[in-house]
Design a protein that fits this description.
The chain is of the alpha+beta class. Helices cover about 30% and strands about 30% of the residues. α2 packs antiparallel against α3.
């Protein structure tokens, strides 16, 4: 059983490492936005398991290159740090994330070209919410 889990993790690591457009995700800074407040304090995610989970879930986003707007404030403001080459500055990508209450869809917006608006199905939106909102 342990070997099977390790094999699956290894395959996921190899396939996702080779397919990353921005480089390797090394850290995520985020703020929870609460109703009536602007933002809570900034938190940082650096542990390998959480970073890998975020990376895997973000690969499931169905992106569209069009602008959209939301009626309510975002739930999470996140900055992803990608290391493209050793010794070079990291690339920063900002995301605004909204979660629905039921079925936990996630709507993600970015100013990144080709990734302006995206949606995560409930099975992945719930995972992403659990990483940010503990």
């Amino acid at each position: 059983m342990k070997r099977r889990i390790l094999l699956v993790l290894f395959v996921l690591l190899v396939t996702t490492a080779c397919s990353e457009d921005f480089g390797e995700l090394t850290r995520v800074d985020f703020q929870i936005v609460t109703p009536g407040e602007d933002h809570t304090g900034e938190e940082t995610i650096t542990d390998d398991d959480s970073i890998q989970t975020i990376h895997d879930v973000m690969e499931k986003v169905k992106w569209e290159d069009k602008n959209a707007s939301m009626v309510r404030k975002k739930d999470v403001r996140a900055v992803f740090y990608y290391q493209q080459e050793e010794g070079m500055p990291e690339r920063l990508v900002e995301y605004d994330i909204w979660f629905t209450e039921e079925s936990v869809f996630a709507v993600i917006m970015s100013e990144e070209e080709g990734r302006r608006y995206g949606v995560l199905r409930p099975e992945y939106g719930g995972i992403l919410r659990d990483v940010f909102v503990k």
